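Reply to dn_fold:

You asked what the input looked like. This is it:
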Amino acid sequence: MAKRENDDQDDAALFREAIGPVRELPAMPEPPRKAPPRPLPRMAARDDAEALGEFRRAMMAADTLEAGDALSYRRDEVPGRVLQRLKRGQYAVQDELDLHAADSVRAEALLRAFLAEVRQAGHGCVRIVHGKGLHSDSGVPVLKNLVDRMLRQRADVLAFHSAPAAQGGNGAVLVLLKR
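and this is what came back:
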């Protein structure tokens, strides 16, 4: 073994002799690291979700409709006789959305998409079936109140009224839309 160590040392000495004088290279900087991911604003998202939930609860608590209450609304520019005709079901329903068995979040998304679709199609009168809310866990007809609030806020809704008994009664609403 001693002979082998001497051979290794001789080989290294021969190599240095063959190469000649060398200068040491400057140290290489470390390669750039990938930037760490941005922190997620979890607290802000949680606060927003809580605020939205509180807003929805406040909206539902203020002026909530009961199961037997009729929905009714018309814009100031819409004559009263138009609302009376809508109340009697004298406008032809061109499309319908049934929100039964949808939770409030899903129902809101469905209603927004439906109204955008019928508006694009140029429909003037549609029916939205929300149910009477008799089986609601909270005792308040959640979907009925949601539909009422959403329709009142939309600029493309001229008037709406609970449907006549033959078309769903207080479990459905007829909506008159701008063309």
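Residues 42-61 form the longest helix (20 residues).
Hope that clears it up.
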